[in-house]
Amino acid sequence: MAFYKSFAVFSAFIMATATAFVVPHAGPPFALLNETGPHNAGKLPWHALSMRASNTTQATNTTTQTTDQPADYESHFCFDRWPTAERDVIDEGMQYLRGLGGNPRLGAGPGTCSRVSCSYNAAIYWCNDNTAEYTLDNFGRIADAAHFIAYNCEYDFNGKGRFYTSGQVFFKKHWNVYITGGERC
Q1: Which long-range contacts (C-beta less than 8 Å, at least 24 apart) are formed by 35-40?
Q2: Residues above pLDDT 70, as percent of the chain
Q3: Which range is the signal sequence, renumbered to this chain (predicted)?
Q4: Smallest Cα–Cα separation from 172: which of 134, 116, 115, 123?
Q5: Residues 162, 152: Cα–Cα separation, whole Å
Q6: CA 140, CA 88: separation in Å to the nearest integer?
Q7: Is 136 a member of any domain?
Q8: Residue 112 falls within a domain, yes or no?
Q9: Pair 166, 153: CB distance under 8 Å
Q10: H or E element: which one contains 181?
Q11: Residue 67: its pLDDT value, please?
Q12: 80-103 residue pLDDT tens
């Protein structure tokens, strides 16, 4: 399996490849997966992210879905900076993230970001504003942050239950998550 590292500068952010250590079966060896979003330009096929031996259980994230402030919450804003995305598509991205095993990790920031989910022009990014590499407990932390945005920063497009969302949530430990639309997935 070939791995790569790519960087591109967009505005004040450095777009980086997210990495995660996952165990494809019980015990070593470990596999290092890069760009773990489900539709990240075909760099890793969807099925490659669900490697596991048939006699093991799938990794799950034990985080909860709530519109309450996530742990370590600092602040958030809605809509202003990011184009809107369909909330149903973001929900699918959150579900995908909750199914991933491993610990998401980003290189030193501030402003180092990685797209961890992208589908139908709707994306979830997570960013590291620390001056050193930062690792989260699991991808569910990113999903929780996205859920907070999706359900606190929403509007019904036509009054018929078609919700759109965008925004960014910041955490005291100097990381953040944002939802945006208009992406080329």
Answers
A1: 35/114, 35/115, 36/100, 36/104, 36/116, 36/139, 37/115, 37/116, 37/117, 37/118, 37/123, 37/124, 38/93, 38/96, 38/117, 38/118, 38/119, 39/117, 39/118, 39/119, 39/185, 40/115, 40/118, 40/185
A2: 63
A3: 1-20
A4: 134
A5: 15
A6: 18
A7: yes
A8: yes
A9: yes
A10: none
A11: 55
A12: 899 999 999 999 999 999 999 999
Alpha-carbon distance 182 to 165, whole Å?
A: 12
Predicted structure pTM score: 0.67
Q: Are 185 and 39 in contact (CB under 8 A)?
A: yes
Domain limits for position 93: 88-185
Token pair for 24: 């494809």
C-alpha radius of gyration, the chain, whole number: 16
Determine, yes or no, domain membership for 110. yes
- Structural domains counted in the chain: 1
The angle at the Cα of 123, spanning 99 to 153, to the nearest 5 degrees, equals: 100
List the one residue out of 23, 14, 10, 1 whose CA is nearest residue 113: 14
In the chain, the N- to C-terminal Cα span, in Å, equals 22
Tell me whether residue 67 is in a domain: no
Angle at 141 between CA 140 and CA 142, to 5 degrees: 90
DSSP letter at 46 equals G
The residue written with tokens 């399996």 in the block is 1
* Measured distance CA(147)–CA(18) in Å, rounded: 20
